[in-house]
From TrEMBL:
SUPFAM superfamilies for this protein: ATPase domain of HSP90 chaperone/DNA topoisomerase II/histidine kinase, Homodimeric domain of signal transducing histidine kinase
Lineage of source species: Bacteria, Bacillati, Bacillota, Bacilli, Bacillales
Enzyme class: transferase
EC number, UniProt record: 2.7.13.3
Catalytic activity: ATP + protein L-histidine = ADP + protein N-phospho-L-histidine
Species of origin: Paenibacillus motobuensis
UniProt keyword annotation of Zinc present: no
Keywords: ATP-binding, Kinase, Nucleotide-binding, Phosphoprotein, Transferase, Two-component regulatory system
Name of the protein described by the UniProt record: histidine kinase
Length: 233
């Protein structure tokens, strides 16, 4: 079942938050409120830990949806600095690992990155793109509630004047129908997705003069590759 509440490419007005996101955020806040109410002394019998877990999960979800939407409605042009790919990976590792671990899957960064691969990037934006990818990968692994263990691999290789960043997972994979619409704003296959992560990611990569591609096999896994121009010395 696919949810796409808005037509492709429709501009979004700042004073007109899409109803679907408003609705989801309100849901999260309503659930959170209910659980906080249950934490009041007269109600607490058992399950305090469970209440706390749900409260945090719902608040995270609401923040996440607002963040996706804000990134989509307020694109900004990159503020570039020159960064080595190995540096980018180092910056990313801690957060990526905790994100993957929380979902019970392993994440492996390539051991040795060629040390001379420099790119001129908005570090914050490119980190955001890679975290979007990793989040999608963990969710795809989650969806498979699988017998084989979930694994995400992240690597980088030189390709002419570009560096290719590769994010590979052994999650649910993507059907051919979904593959064609993946980067459309508001396209999601998740019950509580915004469908904005990939749309924002592609915009950021385009702004950097790069490209983003995907290949996937349903039931096997998915590979995203992001090409960014190298700094030529
Ligand atoms: P959201 O995560 O909110 O659904 P995204 O733009 O991040 O929005 O992703 C859009 C859709 O692309 C997802 O709903 C999912 O169907 C698909 N997708 C993205 N990455 C993966 C992946 N690694 N494995 C399987 N499906 C994916
Ligand atoms: Mg996403």
């Amino acid at each position: 079942e696919l949810k796409s509440a808005y037509p492709k490419g429709k501009p979004v007005l700042h004073n007109n938050l899409p109803a679907v996101i408003m609705h989801e955020v309100r849901n999260s806040l309503t659930v959170t409120r209910g659980f906080i109410q249950l934490l009041q002394p007269q109600f607490v019998k058992v399950g305090k830990d469970e209440y706390a877990r749900v409260i945090l999960m719902e608040l995270d979800k609401a923040c996440e949806m607002l963040q996706d939407f804000m990134a989509y409605s307020k694109p900004r042009s990159p503020e570039r600095t020159i960064v080595d790919v190995s540096e980018l990976f180092k910056e990313l590792q801690l957060l990526a690992k905790s994100q993957a671990l929380a979902k019970g899957c392993r994440i492996e960064f390539m051991e040795e990155v060629e040390d001379s691969m420099e790119i001129s990037i908005d570090l914050k934006q490119i980190k955001q793109v890679l975290l979007n990818m990793i989040k999608n990968a963990t969710e795809a692994i989650d969806e498979l509630h699988q017998e084989r263990s979930g694994l995400i691999r992240i690597s980088a290789e030189r390709n002419g004047h570009f560096v290719k960043l590769i994010i590979c997972d052994n999650g649910s994979g993507i059907s051919a129908g979904a593959l064609a619409r993946l980067f459309e704003p508001y396209f999601t296959t998740k019950e509580r997705g915004t469908g904005l992560g990939l749309a924002v990611s592609r915009q950021i990569i385009n702004d950097h003069g790069g490209t983003i591609k995907v290949s996937s096999t349903k039931g096997k896994g998915t590979i995203f590759d992001i090409s960014l121009p190298l700094v030529i010395n």
